[in-house]
Amino acid sequence: MIKGVNKIPIKRYGLIVALLVVLFSGVFYLYLHYHRAQNLKNSIGKLISARENSSLIDSCLLILYSADNNIHLYALTGDKEYKRKFAIQIKEVSATVKKVKSDQQYSTNLTPATLGKLISEKAAKTDNYLKLQQLTDSLIKLSIKAEKMQSVKKTTVAMPVVKITSSTIHIDTIKLPAKAPERKKFFGRIVAAFSGKQKDQKPADAMIIKRDTQIKTVEQVRTEYIHLRPKPTEDHIRLFNANANLKNSEREILRINNNLISEIIKSLKQYKIAEQNYARESKVELADQVSDVFNEYGYLSKLTIAALFILMVVVLYNIWKLYHNGRYLVYHSEKAEEYAVAKSSFMASMSHEIRTPLNSVLGFSEQLSMTRLDDEQTEQINAIRSSSQMLLEVVNEILDFSKYETGKINFESQPFMPYQALEDVLNTVSIQAAKKGIKLKMNLQFDKNTCFTGDVLRLKQVVMNLLVNAIKFSTNGTVLLHARLMTQTDGQAALKVRVKDNGIGIKKQDLPAIFDEFVQVSDAQKVTHRKGTGLGLAICKKIIELQGGSIRVISELGKGSVFSFELPFLPANKNDIVVETPVSKEDLARAVKNKHVLLADDNQLNVLLASTILKKWSITCHKAYNGQEALALFNANNYDLVLTDILMPVMGGLELTANIRKNKNMLRAETPIIALTANVLKEDRDNYMRSGVNDIVLKPFAELNLIEKIAGVLKTKEVPFINFLITESDLMV
C-alpha cells in the first residue's frame, strides 16, 4: 500500500460536502425570498403609478374647467373658436383618462372606460344643446324680420288728445361691492367645472333711492294714429314651442351635467383617497420590506462570500493534494507495473529453476520404475514420483495464477466435443475416487455429437479441479458430475456444469472468500493431510470469468457442496475437429531407430537423462554443454535432429538455432530443431517458434512424450526432403 495516499481524506471531502450544502442552502434561501423582492418591485411600481394617477387626475380637472368655460363662451358669443377649443379639450380629457392605471385594490367602481363613456356622453349632450341654441336664435331672428315686414300693413286710428301730462321719474341705485366667492376644494372645482357655473361674483344688495321730478305738462289738441297689433302667427307659435323645448333641453343638460360632475367628483375623490391611503401604507410597508430585504441580503452575502472563500481554499488545497497524490499514484503505478513484470519474471525464473531439477527427478524415477525393483524400492520410487508431481502442480498453479493476474493468459479457440471432454476428465479421476471408495456418477443431458469452439484444455482444468476437490474433501458417498446446455439469444450456447458431493461442506461465513487466492477452509484441513496452495478455486474463477462465464457455490456444513459454473461457447462443426491418431510404440520405434541426434544442454543431469532415453530407443547422439560446442559439432557432422536447451552459457539455444538456419547448405539449414526448455510462458514459446524452432518439449518431460515429439518432427522432415529429391532428379533429366 502506498504511504501517504493509502487513506481516503474523509475530513476534506466532508468539509467540501458541508460547504456545498451551505452554498446550496443559501441559493435555495435566496430563491425562496426572491418572491419578496418581486413584491417589493411591484409595490414600488404601484406607488409610482399612484403618483402618476394623481397627476393625471389633476390635469383632467384643469382641462374640464377650461372646456366648460369655452362652451359657455361659445353659447354666449357664437364664436366657433371656443367650440374648437372645447372639442380639443374633451379629446384631451378622454386621452388622459385612458392613461389612468386601474388597480383592483381601489374601492371605486369607476374605471377609465366608464369615465371615458361619461365624457363622451357629456360631449354629445353639449353638442345637442348648442344645436338647439342655434336653432332658437335663428327662429327669433326670423320672427323679428317678419314683424318688420308686417308693420307697413298695419291700420292706424286717429284719436284726439285733449291734454298731455309729462312726468319724469329718476331712480338712483347705489350698489354695494360684491362679495368674493369662497375658495372651493379640489373636487369642488371639478363639480363647478362640469356644472357650468363660472366663478362669478355674487351681486351685491342694491339700495334703490327714488327721486320724483315734475318736469312739464303741455296741453294740446292733436290727432294720433295708433298701430293695432297683428294676430299671433304660426312663427310665434313655433318660437314659443322652441323656447320651451330649449328650456327643457337646457334643464336636462344641466341635470345630466350635474349628475355627471357629481359622479365623476365622487369617484375621483374615492380614487384619490384610495390611492393616497395605498401610497401611505405602501410607503410604510415598502420601507420595512426594503430594510428587511437589504439586511437579509447583506447578511447572506457575507456568509456566501465567506463560504465561497473557504470553499475556494479547500478546493485549491484538494487540487494540490490530488496533484500530489496523482504524482504518487503515477510513480507507484509505474513501480507496480515494474513489480508485476519482475514478479512475472521471477515466477518464470522460479518455474524454470524448479522444473529443471524436477526433470531429472521425475525422469530418472520413471526410468527406475521400468527396471526390476522389489516392493520396497517400488514404493520408494512411487513416493519420489508422487512428491515430485505434487511439487510440479504447486509450481504450475502459482505460475498459472501469475499469468491470470497479469492478463498474460491466452485461450485457444479450437473445435471440440464437450461430452467427450467431460467423460475423459471423469475417467482420469476415477482411479483416485476408487481408492477412497467414492462413487462417481455422470449425468450429461446433451447429445454426444455436440461440438463447440473454445479452449478444451481450460475446460478440463476447471472440471478436473472441482472433481479432485470433491473427492479430496469427501470420505465416502457419491460425487455427481451434471451438465446440460442452455441456448442464448446471441447465437451462443452456455454449458452449465455442476459438481455435487456429500463431503464435509463449507461454513456459511467462509463462502464469500472461497474463491479468493491463497484461501483455505480450516475445516477442510482436518479431512485431508495434504495442504495445498489455496489457488485452485481462484484459478477456476479466473478461467471462467475471463471467458465471460460465472461460477458459484452452494454449501452447508456437514451436508456437502455444489459447485456450478456457466461457460459460453460458439457452436462448431464436428467435421472440423482434428482427430489425433494414437501411434503405437512399435511405430515410434521404427520412426526413430538409428537416428543421429545432437544434444545440447548445460545441465549434466538433463543430458544424462536425455541420452539414456535416446539410447533405449536406438538413437545415437553427440553431447554438447553450450551452444558454441553444439555449433562446432553441427558444422563437423550430419545430424537428423538437434535437441537444445534455451538457456546455456557462451551461446544460447536461440542463437544456435539462428546459426543453423543460416547454414549455406540448404539441407543442413533445414535440420529439425526441438527446444528443451522449462519456460512455460506462451509468449516465450511463441518467440522460440518464430526463431526457427520446429517444436518444444517442456521440462519435466516423460520418456514417451520426448519420443513422440522426435518422431513427429522427423516425419514432417521426410516430406520436403522427398520433394527436394524429385525436384533434383527432374533437373538432371
SS element count, helices: 17
Shape: rod-shaped
Name given to the CATH architecture of the largest domain: Up-down Bundle
Q: Unreliable segments (pLDDT under 50, ≥5 consecutive)? A: 1-6, 151-159, 161-171, 193-206, 217-228, 720-733
Number of structural domains: 4
The count of strands amounts to: 16
CATH level 1 name of the largest domain: Mainly Alpha
Mean pLDDT metric: 75
Residue share in helices? Answer: 55-70%
* Fold-level CATH name of the largest domain: Four Helix Bundle (Hemerythrin (Met), subunit A)
Report the portion of residues in β strands: 15-25%
Task: Please give the alpha-carbon distance between the first and last residues.
Answer: 77 Å
Largest sheet features: 7 strands, mixed
Report the structural category.
alpha/beta
- Radius of gyration of CA atoms, rounded to a whole number: 65 Å
Transmembrane segments: 12-32
Modified residues (4-aspartylphosphate): 645
EC number: 2.7.13.3
GO molecular function: phosphorelay sensor kinase activity
